[in-house]
Design goal:
Radius of gyration: 20 Å
CATH class: Mainly Alpha
Helix content: over 70%
Number of domains: 1
Oligomer: single chain
Largest sheet: 2 strands, antiparallel
Order of helices and strands: HHHHHEEHHHHHHHHHHHH
Number of helices: 17
Structural class: mainly alpha
CATH architecture: Orthogonal Bundle
CATH topology: Farnesyl Diphosphate Synthase
Strand order of the largest sheet: 1-2
Distance between the termini: 26 Å
Number of strands: 2
CATH superfamily: Farnesyl Diphosphate Synthase
């Protein structure tokens, strides 16, 4: 399970901000972790073993943290017996974990958060089926909550994630993809769950639609910033920092923003390089260093991170309607955390 949110040793820049958020909802987060462990149980031994493998790989529990914090920000969770936000935070984490299992199979990933991916250890078939199990568990938690509004938000997010992944598959190897289309991909595959995770916090608190909308916008913009940074890190981080093999996006032919920026800014020779390596997937071991060099030449990382900064700022602005509080400040800092992942 994750380390205590109060741990301060070996923190990368920005992680202290996330620890502050976790500390503010520590009891809720511990209850969420207990729910996750309990709901992973199954008489089919492979299911909890594989699910525990990916849970043990770490992660910051960012998405369930957002659900817990959003609910608390809206005044829910202080009274005895108010535990809906805990159950729904676990639901959000199950949706996220299920998508990770499926994504690693689709991408043929060998690493997840610095450890061997579940598909590398248990095989593709088991990973897909346990991912299905976790999706089913997520929907059980939605039904148990009893709110059609919650069910509508989270089920729509699950569908949107799948659409985003399919859209990414369609745009893979396609250098004609423009930035707007690229943003459509990351809104679907990543940001939709961030938005839903935040929005349901307002729903369980019974707050007005404007608070739902504000939190959904916060989550959406935070999720876009998060994915932009992730895409930049694939060409700028070391493997230990990223937690996956550097250059995975390049090898898979993903048309992420750093590649698109370098391609469109490049001369004929450089564009021919991208057309060979990305569009036709004809790669040699020397091509990744060349790709990184071209992205650096055209400041693709800096431009991608600058865009991430604008979305992070939009996320912070979305919370302007909430009165100042330690939780609001911590959510502001969570937006800053997404940017510090690249530093």
């Amino acid at each position: 399970m994750p380390s205590s949110p109060n741990a301060t040793t070996s923190l990368r820049p920005g992680e202290a901000a996330l620890n502050t958020l976790a500390a503010l909802v520590q009891d809720d987060l511990e209850a969420c972790n207990r729910t996750i462990v309990a709901r992973m149980e199954s008489p089919v031994a492979l299911i909890p073993a594989l699910a525990a493998h990916i849970v043990a790989a770490g992660g910051k529990r960012l998405r369930p943290l957002l659900t817990l914090a959003a609910a608390r920000l809206c005044g829910y969770g202080a009274a005895v017996g108010e535990t809906r936000h805990v159950q729904l935070a676990a639901c959000v984490e199950f949706i996220h974990t299920a998508t990770l299992l499926h994504d690693d199979v689709v991408d043929e990933s060998a690493l997840r958060r610095g450890l061997a991916s579940a598909n590398a250890v248990f095989g593709n078939k088991a990973s897909v089926l346990v991912g299905d199990f976790l999706f089913a568990r997520a929907f059980q938690l939605m039904v148990e909550d009893g709110s059609l509004r919650v069910l509508a938000i989270l089920s729509q997010a699950a569908a949107t994630i799948a659409e985003g992944e399919v859209l990414q598959l369609i745009t893979q190897n396609d250098l004609a993809t423009d930035e707007a289309r690229y943003l459509d991909v990351i809104r679907g595959k990543t940001a939709a769950l961030f938005a839903a995770a935040c929005q349901v916090g307002a729903v369980v608190a019974g707050r007005e639609t404007r608070f739902e909308t504000a939190l959904a916008q916060f989550g959406l913009n935070l999720g876009i910033a998060f994915q932009l940074v992730d895409d930049a890190l694939d060409y700028a981080a070391d493997q230990a920092q990223l937690g996956k093999t550097i250059g995975d996006d390049f090898r898979e032919g993903k048309t992420t923003l750093p590649v698109l920026l370098a391609y469109h800014a490049g001369d004929a020779e450089e564009r021919a390089f991208w057309e060979r390596t990305i569009a036709r997937s004809e790669q040699t071991p020397e091509d990744l260093p060349q790709a990184i060099a071209l992205i650096e030449r055209h400041q693709g990382i800096e431009a991608t991170l600058a865009r991430a900064g604008r979305f992070a700022e939009a996320a912070r602005h979305a919370l302007a309607g909430f009165p100042p509080s330690p939780l609001r400040d911590a959510l502001h800092e969570a937006a800053e955390y997404t940017l510090h992942r690249a530093r």
